[in-house]
Amino acid sequence: MTPTHGADMPPKTKLGILISGRGSNMKAIYHAIQEGDMHASIAVVISDNPQSEGLDWAKNEGLQTYAIGRESYAKKSAFETAICEKLQSHQVQWVVLAGYMRLVGKTLLSPYHNRMVNIHPSLLPAFPGLHAQAQALRYGVKVSGCSVHFVDASMDGGPIIAQEAVHVLPDDTEESLSHRILAVEHRLLPTVLKVICSPPVFSPSS
Ligand code: GRF
Predict the structure, then answer these.
(1) Per-domain residue ranges of the chain
(2) φ and ψ at 168, to 5 degrees?
(3) Minimal-distance CA residue to ligand 1 atom 6
(4) Is 120 in the pocket of ligand 1 (CB under 6 A)?
(5) Which end of the chain is more exposed for a tag (fewer CB within 10 A), N or C?
(6) Is 145 in the pocket of ligand 1 (CB under 6 A)?
(7) What would the pLDDT profile of 40-81 be if each residue is shown by its tens digit?
(8) Separation of CA 25 and ligand 1 centre (Å)
(9) Topology of the domain comprising 12-117+147-159+184-201
(10) pLDDT in tens, 160-171
(11) How large is the angle between the packed helices 132-139 and 174-197, nearest 10 degrees?
């Protein structure tokens, strides 16, 4: 076995990022790549919401972006086929759902099975779905957090890759808890992606 470095370095992993709104997790990935310690590139950013703030930001950064609105397609499968075509045309290897607010159907899932991850603002399997932070407050848990998991056909139900806990404070509101969890999300998602995208340290000698 010989160390892999220099000219032997495999190409960067091409990420496709799906968003619906603000895009702060996408920005965290972008900054981690800029800092040079993630062996990846953002091949494309796709939003199902043409008004997405994150999409404007990505465009301004010179990233390849597309708005693909669900309302332009009669069927979910046609909508997801349009997304897949963009992912495939940019040779995406891993798909990251970074605030993509739709349940992924089999058209989009099949080509990226086990190569699609999602970030969710709770300690799954607790509080899947929308408003996870409000659900946590309503339930009265004293600890919540965030999870990165593989995507399957269920709502936030695929195998968990990593989690980090955040204390729920007595005077927390949905906003304050979301804010503290989000700061942790911005660290956890890039940490997982760094591992996923890291090239092997050793390659077989020739
Ligand atoms: C995050 O809290 C993420 O966990 C959830 O949606 C939110 C997206 O935020 N899935 P942003 O668009 O990344 O700022």
Answers:
(1) 12-117+147-159+184-201
(2) -90, 125
(3) 99
(4) yes
(5) C
(6) no
(7) 999 999 999 999 999 999 999 999 999 999 999 999 999 999
(8) 6
(9) Rossmann fold (3.40.50)
(10) 999 999 999 999
(11) 120
